[in-house]
Amino acid sequence: MRNSQEVKRFMIQMKNYIRNGFNKGWQSLSKHRWLKYLTLSIASVILLSSIGFFFIIYGGGLIVDEKEMVLPATTTVVTEDGTYAGRLYTENRLLTPLSDVPDHVLTAFIATEDERFYSHAGVDFRSVLRAVYKDIVALDKVEGASTITQQLSKNLFLTNDQSWMRKTKEVMASMYLERNYSKNDILELYLNQLYFAHGVYGIETASQYFFSKSVSDLTVTEGALLAGMIKGPNIYSPYISEENAVARRNVVLNQMHRVGYLETEELLQLQGQGLGVTPQPEAAPAYIDDYLEVVIQEIESTYNITRDELQRGGYRVTVHMDPLMQKKAYEHVNQSNYYEASNDEVEASVVIVDKETAGLKAVIGGRHYTIGQSHHQALTKHQPGSTIKPLAVYTPALENGYHPYTLLTDEQKDFNGYIVRNANNEYVGDIPLVDALAESKNTTAVSLLNDIGIDTGKSYLDQLNLSTKDDGLAIALGGLSSGYTPIQMATAYNTYLNEGIYRDSSAVMSISDRNGVEMTSAEGEEARVFEKQSAWYTLNMLERVVTDGTASRYDYSGALAGKTGSTQHDSVEGATKDAWFVGLTPEFTISTWIGFDQSDEEHYLTKGSSQAVHLTKALLSDINQMDNIKHAFDRPSGVEDLPAPITLPEITDLNASFSLGGFNLFRAELTWSTPSDERIIYHVYEVTEDGKKLIGKTAGEGSYTIRQPSILQMTRYYVEPINPLTNQAGTLSNPAMLSLFD
């Protein structure tokens, strides 16, 4: 306690002493006004200088925005086998760790740009003094003295103006970086942010662009060339001026010699070498853009990564794309010989979905589509026309008690004011379900949907990710208020290849961030929609569409099933708005759409779905040449094939005769010619004075024995062929007369 009181008393005495001394001193200065002002001025300068010094040393945090230190990095898109497919970026930059950069490459940059990099604290004052001296002599700013850290600070946080204020901020930011980051951190960031002309950022990207190799494989001369370029990328690029590039590279090699990295003999030998650059890379092929747009939108919706984040984030995306299929599809879509339209602004889309994975193997969003365009036709909804019939009507009917050979009625009919007509305005009466689908009868589709119920048809569409708010019978003909995208249609039809199981399609297999961590997303939907037998029957029926129905035009040698579709133009009589063909091969599903961005009086198709069939079959034939495409669909286990159609014969040679034998004295034999199809059933009729009656049946044979024929009166006989699949009866044969006395 005593000690504390003594200390307190001492502090009070000192305070009074200082105050008295200051007052006496100030009174003394007051007697000499000029000395007072001089003292104040010196004190102010010292104070302001101290504040400025500490602000420069410690105020860099106000300049540095650490978010800017996360460099925009290129997202790389590759196929399943690692083949390069494309890049997405705002700045084309592939990040690389400093550990991957060889020592001779580091030396080239440090020797040229900042040879005392590892010894200064962000600012090289020796270089600064030299630069200031030259600036004063020239009465202008003629020489820079920026260290690597200062260059990095300027490039990341500041503008390129030459003011002293900008230079001060540069120093502040540099000293902040040096205090808070290691030299290696700074150097790694520096090498990754550099610009090398031609839209190339970062040393790894530059290595691949100029030398087609990774930075880890660069030679001394190659590293020197890149180090020399950063002073003036558009001056020293070897693709712009080889002479300038050689001269600048040799300057860098001289610097490496001066700092002791190269011996004189080695220097001379290296300076005599050529540049060794590879041919300038071509721009990314145009056919990739269509697919990349789908990738971007899928990642946005599935992984919640925005387009901008994807283009800046340095992700690695693995996709289902088949580059050859994508290229072939692009080439065919951009040919003009398939299209029959009012003008050459006609658009088209092709989508190919893999059977096994439901991966998008190819996506074309339009003719000459470029990434970012608003109309990507594969992602745009179009009215599906008759391509909806199997999905909403015919397969659901098979699920609900119908058979491919169930007889339907093809006739014009009024459904409470909704009058349905066939496209050709022709009607055949009774027709098997399979033929109604093959010939794309509108009447039977609407009638069948009416029979099974609109809600039933819509329930299957819901399961196929084809939900619609429409509630009318027009659903059977694809007359929807909105419609579906070609991707949706290909995905839905792919269900037939997978035994009735629906799988969501996707472009993206996996995505990893810039640190190599794979990102997860919700699993795609997979569910049984149709029974195996119904799916297989439908696939068989869709083969009939191609062999005998609306898609039979144009040749294709491989196995193919599918359905055509078209919609009427709203304002041009007899014109078509949308033309479709959705096809199935043993390996994949293909959806083709043709139409216009906007349909009006000047934009319409002059023909219907045949042009979509033409494009599809030509593309498939081209793909067939590069792949071993199957020529038949593999029947799943536990299902029956769709029976082949039966053609009933016209019997004109029925003959009747008596014969002897057996327990009966007389027998009658009827004979007639038969086709090879043994499934046909023949009904035998006898006509007497009492009328006509069925006396027997036989299958596959052209003969029938009457064991107790009438011998006392003349009897006529007829044979009627019957189709057991549909129970349809053919034409009665010629009559055969039988009389013992004739």
UniProtKB/TrEMBL annotation:
Transmembrane residue ranges: 37-58
Reactions mediated catalytically: Preferential cleavage: (Ac)2-L-Lys-D-Ala-|-D-Ala. Also transpeptidation of peptidyl-alanyl moieties that are N-acyl substituents of D-alanine; [GlcNAc-(1->4)-Mur2Ac(oyl-L-Ala-gamma-D-Glu-L-Lys-D-Ala-D-Ala)](n)-di-trans,octa-cis-undecaprenyl diphosphate + beta-D-GlcNAc-(1->4)-Mur2Ac(oyl-L-Ala-gamma-D-Glu-L-Lys-D-Ala-D-Ala)-di-trans,octa-cis-undecaprenyl diphosphate = [GlcNAc-(1->4)-Mur2Ac(oyl-L-Ala-gamma-D-Glu-L-Lys-D-Ala-D-Ala)](n+1)-di-trans,octa-cis-undecaprenyl diphosphate + di-trans,octa-cis-undecaprenyl diphosphate + H(+)
GO cellular component: outer membrane-bounded periplasmic space
SUPFAM superfamilies: beta-lactamase/transpeptidase-like, Lysozyme-like
Entry GO MF terms: penicillin binding; peptidoglycan glycosyltransferase activity; serine-type D-Ala-D-Ala carboxypeptidase activity
Boundaries of every Glycosyl transferase family domain copy: 85-257
Penicillin-binding protein transpeptidase domain mapped to chain residues: 349-618
Keywords from the UniProt entry: Carboxypeptidase, Cell membrane, Cell shape, Cell wall biogenesis/degradation, Glycosyltransferase, Hydrolase, Membrane, Multifunctional enzyme, Peptidoglycan synthesis, Protease, Transferase, Transmembrane, Transmembrane helix
Record-level GO BP terms: cell wall organization; peptidoglycan biosynthetic process; proteolysis; regulation of cell shape
Keyword Hydrolase tagged: yes
This protein's record includes keyword Protease: yes
Similarity-based family: In the C-terminal section; belongs to the transpeptidase family. In the N-terminal section; belongs to the glycosyltransferase 51 family.
Protein name per the record: Penicillin-binding protein 1F
Organism encoding this protein: Halolactibacillus miurensis
Gene: pbpF
